[in-house]
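**Sequence with structure:**
===
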Amino acid sequence: MSDESASRLPYRVVERAVRFSCAQALVGAVSGAALGGSFMIAYLLKLGADNVQLGWMGTIGSLCALAQILSPAMIERGISRKKITILTAFASIAGWITVVALPYVHWPLVRENRIAFLISLVAVNTVLAYVNSNARASWVGDLIPQERLGAFFGKLSIYSGWLGVILIVVQGRFLDSVKYRGLAGFSWLFVFGLVFSCLHTLFYFPRLTCISRCISATVSRRAFARLSPTAS
């Protein structure tokens, strides 16, 4: 959709889409704080990773950054941005379910290569996150008037970033308080992130579920007004 066609959408439709996008981004910040990799090094240490494996985990974000070119490449080939966004969201959920289950799988092949499998899964999920975020940003960006794009995404990034920082600190304190439970504490944290990841994905289907509508309705209109395309 071009900016010209987006400008012909009724204001109510645009405002509703903006509200859903804002609520989805905040829910995604909750999920990202738990699943974004902040606790993966500690998780690997619990699993007995060596220095080389820790190094690989620490560089995944930088190594996978090139995956961002996949989104525009697929879009240029005519693949729908909505389809890219939704499929990568579901694939990411499946990947994190596997990450949570991995320490409890006792098949010999998995048990002996558990850390390698974990690093590979995190790398795949990171690629999916890059592809998803770029496709979603392009998709949502068509709903926002061109002159408001910078302010909208800038403010949204600030609020999501602060929420993520606060949650990471809280979740770190949680892990410290349950460290006597070993890997179970990390599993609880990742399951918490998965729940919000599922809620984040439900926002792509507003007509099929009332959950996304309930979440966006409970958030202050005043808070959304600061993020809306009509805000100064």
